[in-house]
Design goal:
Elements (H helix, E strand, L loop, with lengths): L1 E6 L13 E5 L4 E4 L5 H7 L9 E3 L5 H4 L2 H10 L7 E3 L4 H8 L1
Parallel strand pairs: 3-4, 4-5
Antiparallel strand pairs: 1-2, 2-3
Length: 101
């Protein structure tokens, strides 16, 4: 299993670091932990396949941890993603994501 730090910066991108997003990949797993606002361009920059992701785990509702979900979902729509993508997180994530969209 491999853990890749896609982004580990603060909410303001201090020092040029991107918002929080960790990619975990292995033989039977491929998921993100958090999806900050800058996650989509970071995933593209590092060549991480968004189509191959199975799951996005959100730790909490700060924008630098979950603000990138709308962009990830729009990317999936425009690239005609065929696989399901599970999004899991704290209680109320369904309502928060709907409001964020």
């Amino acid at each position: 299993m491999q853990l890749r730090f896609v982004g580990c910066g603060d909410a303001l991108g201090s020092g040029g670091r991107l918002n929080t997003c960790f990619h975990v990949a292995g033989e039977r797993v491929n998921f993100l932990i958090d999806c900050g606002a800058t996650s989509l361009p970071a995933l593209k920059r590092y060549g991480i396949s968004r189509e191959a992701l199975d799951l996005v785990l959100i730790t909490h509702f700060h924008g630098d941890h979950f603000g990138g979900l709308p962009f990830l979902l729009l990317d999936a729509q425009f690239t005609k993603r065929k696989r399901p993508l599970v999004i899991a997180g704290p209680l109320g994530i369904d309502i928060r994501l709907t409001r964020l969209m």
